[in-house]
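Retro notes, structure queue

What went well: the backlog is down to a handful. What didn't: a couple of records were mislabeled last round, so from now on we paste the full input next to the output in the thread. Example, using protein adenylyltransferase from Trichoplax adhaerens:
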Amino acid sequence: MPNKDGISHCMSGFLQGKHQGKSQLNKSPAIPATTNLTKEVIYTLKQAWRSARKGDKKKATKLFVYAIRMAPRHPDVLNNYGEFLEHEDVIQAEYYYTAALSHYPYHQLALSNRKRTLPLVQQIDRDRLARIAAKRSKFYALPLTDPALIRMKRESYYQHVYHTVAIEGNTMNLQMTRAVIENRIAIGGKSVMEHNEIIGMDEALSYINTTLINKAGLLDVQDILQIHRRVYGFSDPFEAGNYRNSQVYIADHVPPPPGQVAAKMTEFDNWLKSSEARQLHPIELAALAHYKLVHIHPFVDGNGRTARLFMNCILMRAGFPPIIIRVHDRFHYYQYLSQANDGDVRPFMRFIADTTEFTLDEYLNYTSVPAIIELNNARRKKNDDVNTDVTISKESTPKGDDKK
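Corresponding output:
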């Protein structure tokens, strides 16, 4: 924990190659001199702890964040911020302890802090999945003929298309998206590419709903190729459903070169069919499959749309409603993917879990009648692990029914 200056004890000497007397820290290798902190970073951390002791958490947070910007990979900075966060957010604290250890595995304070907090975080994650499973059972118990449920599914279809293309930069609004899907009309001032992205999503969703949801056996890479063929087929029929033959660059991530894509996708296919994957919770499997696919980035374009569709396909086959990653969550979505690239995929998995829970809450709040749910639970309690009708379809109700 922080010393009298506020900084975790190893800060004042351990990172600068000095001895700490008989401290346990000296039993681990010294961090190379090239990773020493500057005086400005040390001063910033001291001021951050002083602000924290005075109760000014807002200022302390700004100072810690500033210190991380100056030394984003330094284990002491990451560990100090974790200690500051732990009292109110143990998940974030454990994340920073893990990040510190990823850059220096021998950091004794980070090791001790993570050992203490990891069991707490694991229990929180288990509780979250158990809570979501209970809500899934309630969702499955909803009568399939419930008019509110039918309308909700239909609206979700348009919402799903709108948000998933908007994340990629499509400027069509929800009303325009609906018009393109329902009537295939051209929207003035919008590019042909934007129209084709929406039509491609419509085709891919229809394919998933009519084919993949009820497919016998496991999903595989061939299913991904079929999804991409529809997602991208109206934009570039020659590239659709085919692996890229050029290098692509995604922000700070450089996907494998084109010559390695086929082999990477074969590895991914083997993982999808492995006992390891089958033992995962469906939400964990869906999130990991999404991440692995965008990490490989096998296509020249349309990777994100394809990954989100494939993720939803896994969720729907497990009895969950399809989730929508909304455009206003784009920053966090990409941030968690970036953190996964840095070695910790758990924040992204929690993001998908939280989005799944939010989606379930939307359905239950919009449609649920407690007495009906209780009755249907009693009737169908033996079958609540599989939902045979969780597809989203624009044909769920006649056009115009939602105007009634």
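Agreed that this is the format going forward. Reviewer comment attached to the example: The CA atoms of residues 68 and 329 lie 23 Å apart.
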